[in-house]
Amino acid sequence: MGLIYPDFQTLPELFTQVFRHYKGQKKKFPIARKVNDTYEPISYDSFSEDVSALAAFLKHKGIEAKDRVAILSENRPGWYLADMAILGIGAADVPLYPSLPPNQIEYILKDSGSKAIIVSNMLQLGKVLSIWQNLPDLEFIIVMNRLDEKVDSVTELSEAKKTGHAILDSTPDYVSYTMLKPDDIATIIYTSGTTGLPKGVMLTHGNICENVKSCSSIIRLDESDRSLSFLPLSHSYERTGGYYLLFACGAQIYLAESIETVSLNIAEAKPTIIFTVPRLFDRIKANILKQIENQSPVKQKIFKWAFDTGITYHKQDRTSKPGTLLSVQHSLANKLVYTKIKEKFGGHLRYFVSGGAALPIKVGEFFQALGIVILEGYGLTETSPVTNVNRPEKVKFGTVGPAVDNVDIAIGTDGEILFKGPNIMKGYWNDEEATKEVIYDGWFHTGDIGELDEDGYLKITDRKKHIIVTSGGKNIAPLPIEQLIAENNYVDQVMVAGEKKPFLIALIVPNFSELESFAEERQLNWTTKNDLVELKQVRQIYESLLRNISRQLAAHEKVRKFLLMQDPFTIENGYMTPTLKLKRKSINKTFQKEIDSLYSTMNTLYNSD
């Protein structure tokens, strides 16, 4: 069926039409969340009534069209409710990551001039209360959870809805969105930024609506589809793909309890589509292989045969039609192995959509061999966000697919990827200079380097600003090298460095569970993680890995030394953005001393050929 109402020009128009379509249909629902260990749906009718009530309350409190209202919450029904209500009165919302500390929340609320904020719980409320005296524009707060005690100008969501319902009882047409235009700002999303202060990306109703329409023609969804949501709604990827697109097609959104419970929730929700990031696939792959290791030798052999059959089948399928014998073997492998693995994902999964970072080719091929399709895509907050996605009928790993409908793509003379289309942001909030730096001659300049193949599939080679220039003047893209290193089972995370240095080095976060198994098998003595990474046999693993990789690289691209890290790069320790991108400058700065010491001793892994 696809889009329920294909002609929507603004998001409230979309919401209203979908709610109208499902009015009175008690068995249909847009969202389900866990209550007492069971997924419970929220009907379209009750959700629609709550949206209207909250919108009425916001208007009653003085929120007007074009005002800004912030949302500081984890993924939960209240997030969708807040978003729909804010947009419904013509205001723009400002989503904030719940992991942000008070000083960053203060900067965004002040910069956006937010008049109100809707927070999830006491923790988030505490952050806002601690900075409120520095926010002259902030007039009131709504909290989704129950308050421990009354606080001035803070209202519980249940009370806000009650007040809103009372207003609508006396004035049914109190809230109206009909004055909204496609060019009006729907949201200001602050890019987390790997460097400097975050910038507010202004996305209009038209930007997002056109992007939803473009995606719907590629990723065909209808009311028989359902997803599991765990990526933050404060990020444009989950918001456009995992929320607006699904809602527009009448699909159901099941909310994961947390990132830790995803595998359990997948089995319960039985999703047909999951929007995710590459890091999740690493975990799933490791779990599958771990489970196979614990099977009998016969079952291990069957798995290996089925996996090899899948690899051969898809390799042939890319160039010609697989032969009869191979097709029969593939069909048998499907019965014996692939269907059992698919059952772990609930048994109904049609495909994963992967974005936010590069998907290693070997990871894509691993899942494809087991009958699980991953559609890798690409986009930026500034592009609402989807610009490219692989097509279900033709997946090319190592690429992010062709451009979606309505989006024009070009490669600049320096290799930079450029886009033009109705999905390109209005600009950066209060920052014309920064806007002019990225949008000129009608094209949005991504800052990413890439190339198009003969089918128009885009391959991203690196970030323009991540290019390392060595002391010898060589320009090196670190991303492909990092992907080669990260393919090894003993590597969890990696960052390649070497700016203005004679050669490259790698900061490697080991996969400690693999390392511990390695040490136990060889009866090596260690107590702490530091002891483990200092073991000669452990260091030899990484020396061998980098030597093998060096054979695939030009002389100036070889990684000649490495540092084994004891702690992972995370959002909490400030080494990753909320969208799981490495903060390279922060990592380089913190570990400057250790990095310098690698360059001060000249014996490298291999001679500087």
UniProtKB/TrEMBL annotation:
<dbReference type="Pfam" id="PF00501">
    <property type="entry name" value="AMP-binding"/>
</dbReference>
<dbReference type="InterPro" id="IPR042099">
    <property type="entry name" value="ANL_N_sf"/>
</dbReference>
<dbReference type="GO" id="GO:0005524">
    <property type="term" value="F:ATP binding"/>
</dbReference>
<dbReference type="InterPro" id="IPR020459">
    <property type="entry name" value="AMP-binding"/>
</dbReference>
<dbReference type="Pfam" id="PF23562">
    <property type="entry name" value="AMP-binding_C_3"/>
</dbReference>
<dbReference type="InterPro" id="IPR000873">
    <property type="entry name" value="AMP-dep_synth/lig_dom"/>
</dbReference>
<dbReference type="InterPro" id="IPR020845">
    <property type="entry name" value="AMP-binding_CS"/>
</dbReference>
<feature type="domain" description="AMP-dependent synthetase/ligase">
    <location>
        <begin position="27"/>
        <end position="429"/>
    </location>
</feature>
<keyword id="KW-0067">ATP-binding</keyword>
<dbReference type="GO" id="GO:0004467">
    <property type="term" value="F:long-chain fatty acid-CoA ligase activity"/>
</dbReference>
<keyword id="KW-0547">Nucleotide-binding</keyword>
<protein>
    <submittedName>
        <fullName>AMP-dependent synthetase</fullName>
    </submittedName>
</protein>
<dbReference type="GO" id="GO:0016020">
    <property type="term" value="C:membrane"/>
</dbReference>
